Amino acid sequence: MRSTDTAGTRRESKSWSARSIGSRWQHRFFYSLIRLAGRRAAYVMAVFIALYYVLFRPSVRARSRPYLSRRFPGRNALLRLWDSFRITVEIGKVLVDRAALGILGPGQLTVRHSRREDLLERIREGRGLILVTAHAGCWQFAMENLRQLETRVSLLLLREEGDVDLHIFEHRGDDAAFRIIDPAGPLGGALEMLQVLKHGEVLCIMGDRAMGGDRSTVEVEFLGGRVRVPVMPYQLGSATGAPVVVIFPYNSGPGSYSLQVEKVIRVPEDMGRDPEAYRLHAEAFIRALEGFVEDRPYQFFNFFDMWSREPMR
Amino acid sequence: MTTVEKLKKILVEDLNLEGLTPGDIDENAPLFGEGLGLDSLDAVELIVIVQKRFGIEIQNLDEGKAAFQSVHTLASYIEGRLSNG
């Protein structure tokens, strides 16, 4: 079965899904636990649940295998199991923190913001700011924190129908926390994205998840294999003059997060439509991501097989 | 050259539509999706081109979405805006 949305993003049957692996009642159980017993109790529960998933749900191990087998090549079966457990625990903690932030409020967590002044300086240029991040750490927490940048933050985000995993603002009923732009909407959200930048605001895009086919991506080397990454952030930078900032949020301790500004990419103006024109910029991002996963291997949560030839979503 | 013809030329030359000539483009076919198959990168480029070549900035999102349905609707939108000064 295949259909096409208004911007040409293919929706097709696939082996991968962005939906949470947990059921609705499991999510509700965790939300109640956080409300009644706090974040730390939910952490402990998350460790046991991660152990259960890794031991008895092969599909959970399979989701992280493409990344872990490239990050840790040559591991034996026991170490592979350990790696899978570690990354499952880490994402469990992040999901707990995310829910805690939404349910209990921002006082639950602390954040260290590297080069915050640098970001503010870029925003004051008045040409908007494009943040390129990855499925690393708690990116939603990063979004929350970016509200301190004194301007509105919009995020290009494709939501899977029927996903039971709530976003921070959905816990709070606060839909103004940051604005979601749907890449499957009219014109792929292009009008909205350009308006965000025109108004000097912040636009955040995942640089490690390509939506669409070969015409909107370039193939680059990542962890010893070829992956396709989107060029949209760099094309927008070229079209508007907005600086592109690579930023990775990560868990730096219990209840503590850091926003690491990796690099600022300036894309020359009027580079046009050809994705190949942005190869160098996409490579700069992927080298930064490689450095991130080298330092924090269990905080990269892109459970899509980036190295397969299936179109990424 | 009419606005429709100009737009068809822009689509082929600036959006790198491989294997297409301006004459191949049906002006009533949807620009995105099953019609011409443009994607979000094309959309960004097209919006910027309309601004630079025709001096038209799209302020209203709904208006813009309606305008970018097809070559015909876009041409009508551009001509309408230009005639209104």
Summarize the structure in short.
The complex is a heterodimer of chains A (313) and B (85). With 313 residues, chain A is of the alpha/beta class.
Give the topology, please.
The complex is a heterodimer of chains A (313) and B (85).
Chain A: E1 2-4, E2 10-12, H1 24-37, H2 39-56, H3 58-71, H4 77-104, E3 110-113, H5 116-124, E4 129-133, H6 139-146, E5 153-156, H7 168-172, E6 179-181, H8 190-198, E7 202-206, E8 217-222, E9 225-230, H9 232-240, E10 244-253, E11 256-265, H10 279-295
Parallel strand pairs in A: 3-11, 4-7, 4-10, 5-6, 5-7
Antiparallel strand pairs in A: 1-2, 8-9, 10-11
Helix pairs in contact in A: 1-2, 1-4, 2-4, 3-4
Chain B: H1 3-14, H2 40-54, H3 61-67, H4 71-83
Helix pairs in contact in B: 1-4
How many helices of chain B? The count is: 4
Average pLDDT figure of chain A: 82
Task: Give the strand tally of chain B.
Answer: 0
Series of H and E elements of chain A: EEHHHHEHEHEHEHEEEHEEH
The average pLDDT of chain B is: 90
Overall structural domain count of chain B: 1
Q: Give the class-level CATH name of chain B.
A: Mainly Alpha
Q: Which stretches of chain B are poorly predicted, pLDDT < 50 over at least 5 residues?
A: none
Instruction: Name the chain pair with the biggest interface and residue counts per chain.
Output: A-B, 31 and 23 residues
Largest sheet of chain B, described in full? none
Known CATH architecture of chain B: Orthogonal Bundle
The portion of residues assigned to helices of chain A is 40-55%
Helices and strands of chain A: which structural class?
A: alpha/beta
Reported for the largest beta sheet of chain A, the result is: 7 strands, mixed
First-last Cα distance of chain B:
20 Å
Cα shape of chain B:
globular
What is the subunit organization of this protein?
Answer: heterodimer
Report the total helices of chain A. Answer: 10
CATH superfamily of chain B: ACP-like
Keywords:
heterodimer, A: alpha/beta, two-stranded antiparallel ribbon, 19% strand, disordered N terminus, B: 85 residues, Non-ribosomal Peptide Synthetase Peptidyl Carrier Protein, Chain A, 55% helix, globular
